[in-house]
Design brief:
Blueprint (H helix, E strand, L loop, with lengths): L1 H13 L4 H20 L3 E2 L5 E2 L7 H12 L10 H19 L7 H18 L6 H35 L1
Antiparallel strand pairs: 1-2
């Protein structure tokens, strides 16, 4: 994925940018900026803010066992299954927002569809199946973290190439 994104970005900068290419270059730039600025900063099922959601822990399982046992649909705790649903909606909305910018880039569209697939899969599970939903959420968050990393690598690569010119 890094090479594919790098080729897309470098291709935009290696050739002469004519008016018809400006839209593509701007859209790619918007995509990269949006992903770095607006996507990421996840929350665990217990409400902790993290850069990357890791695997389910014993504490997560204990928390969710108590959460399910004491669940009251009128209580909005901002944690547990309520938080998971909110996080999934946020990611889904963000993916929908950036999709128009990368329609012409197959690799980036594949990334959006894959990440959206994890979000959709997670959304199909009930509260009692929270572990399956959370596993899919973890996969979606890992995709986003990987894209963050790739964009940063591409940006560094472009900086180095600009210095070498």
């Amino acid at each position: 994925m890094v090479d594919a994104l790098s080729k897309i970005v470098l291709y935009q900068y290696k050739k002469l940018i004519v008016p018809s290419d400006i839209k593509g270059a701007l859209n790619l730039s918007k995509f990269m900026t949006f992903v770095l600025r607006d996507m990421g900063g996840f929350q665990t099922i217990r409400g902790n803010r993290v850069d990357e959601v890791e695997e389910i822990t014993v504490r997560d399982r204990n928390y969710m066992r108590d959460y399910i046992e004491n669940f009251n649909s009128s209580d909005k705790t901002g944690r547990g299954y309520d938080l998971l649903k909110k996080e999934l909606e946020k990611i889904g909305s963000q993916l929908k927002e950036i999709k128009p910018y990368v329609n012409e880039y197959d690799t980036l569209m594949t990334w959006i569809h894959e990440t959206k697939g994890y979000v959709s899969k997670a959304s199909t599970y009930s509260m009692r199946e929270w572990e399956k939903a959370y596993d899919a959420y973890i996969q979606a968050s890992k995709n986003i973290v990987e894209m963050h990393d790739m964009i940063r690598i591409v940006q560094e690569k472009n900086k180095l190439q600009a210095l070498m010119r």
